[in-house]
Write a structure and sequence with these properties.
Elements: H1 2-16, E1 23-26, E2 32-35, E3 42-44, H2 47-55, E4 62-65, E5 82-83, E6 86-87, H3 89-94, E7 99-103, H4 109-117, E8 122-125, H5 130-144, H6 147-168, E9 174-179, H7 193-200, E10 203-205, H8 219-225, E11 229-232, H9 253-256, E12 260-262, H10 265-268, H11 275-292
Parallel strand pairs: 3-4, 3-7, 7-8, 9-10, 9-11, 11-12
Antiparallel strand pairs: 1-2, 5-6
Helix pairs in contact: 5-6, 6-11
Length: 296
């Protein structure tokens, strides 16, 4: 009889215990993503997403990624599923992911629409500010059940960002042209993450008001904007040759004061914790520009 009562007591406890709650988050496209359990097999469709997943402590759960997912070192060994603009859908499906994380600005909508039709949850990521980077880390931690590590990484990111803001955000403003590429001549508008980095450093994007996130502009428009500093990225760790082509415009303030700067694109064009490495360089460069203009 005692055993029977013990059995009933156990069943009562189990019946009263709440069922495991679904993981429910809203992505950056406004879609609600629901997972019955933490993601165990994640495919990343952008290099920055791969890096954010590792920062969130979820690197061990990433089973595939696109080309150029090269940081941290462990990401280089991941199976490839094509490039972020040309996915190998068969390769994605073959990895049997329980979650795919896409990039709104980089992936084509029809690519991840097909995955959703196959029943694969797709979270769309699109950081537009430095706080969005920290928030993305936290969200990826929730999706992968690595919230403790993700929370610590996000907090460290915010602390470092705030320290840069205290030091530089209220410095005398510097008018900045950020050049992504030369042919076509491309820049970023005020809604781009890099514009937020400029503001952190006390800089102002001369093309902030343009409606397109990464617009093409004319050389004449740059000359009319008269930036006090030009910052270029290029393709790799080497300063692009085309940055110095501005030197023929000797009356341009950025040229007259020799404020033609370079920051490796992986430090400023990836929406990851390393963007604060790029921000530190940008802040230091704008301090040089201020010094040359006698604005200490």
């Amino acid at each position: 009889m005692k055993a029977l009562f013990a059995l009933f007591a156990l069943l009562s406890v189990l019946a009263a215990a709440p069922a495991a709650a679904d993981i429910r988050v809203t992505d950056d496209a406004g879609h609600v993503i629901v997972l019955a359990a933490p993601a165990q097999r994640i495919v990343s469709l952008a290099p920055h997403v791969t890096e954010l997943l590792y920062a969130a402590g979820a690197g061990a759960k990433v089973v595939g990624a696109v080309q150029y997912s090269d940081y941290p070192e462990a990401a280089r060994a991941l199976p490839r599923v094509g490039g972020y603009t040309a996915l190998d859908m068969e390769a994605v499906v073959a990895l049997k992911p329980d979650l795919v994380i896409a990039w709104k600005s980089g992936n084509r909508n029809q690519q991840y629409d097909r995955l959703e039709k196959l029943g694969i949850p797709v979270f769309v990521n699109e950081p537009r500010s430095l706080d969005d980077v920290a928030r993305s880390i936290e969200t990826f931690g929730r999706l992968a059940a690595t919230s403790t590590e993700a929370g610590a990484a996000a907090a460290a990111f915010r602390t470092r960002r705030d320290a840069l803001a205290v030091r530089y955000a209220q410095r005398p403003p510097v008018e900045v042209f950020y050049q992504i590429w030369n042919r076509p001549l491309m820049t970023i508008n005020g809604k781009h993450l890099i514009s937020d980095v400029m503001a952190l450093c006390g800089g102002h994007n001369v093309f902030a008001d343009l409606p397109i996130l990464a617009p093409t502009v004319t050389e004449e428009a740059v000359l009319a904007a008269a930036p006090q500093a030009i910052i270029a990225s290029g393709m790799g760790d080497s300063r692009p040759e085309w940055l110095d082509s501005w030197r023929r415009w000797t009356t341009l303030p950025a040229v007259a004061r020799d404020n033609l700067f370079f920051i490796p694109p992986e430090l400023l064009q990836r929406h990851t914790p390393r963007i604060l490495d790029g921000a530190t360089r940008l802040c230091e460069q704008l301090e040089q520009a201020r010094a040359k203009a006698g604005r200490k």
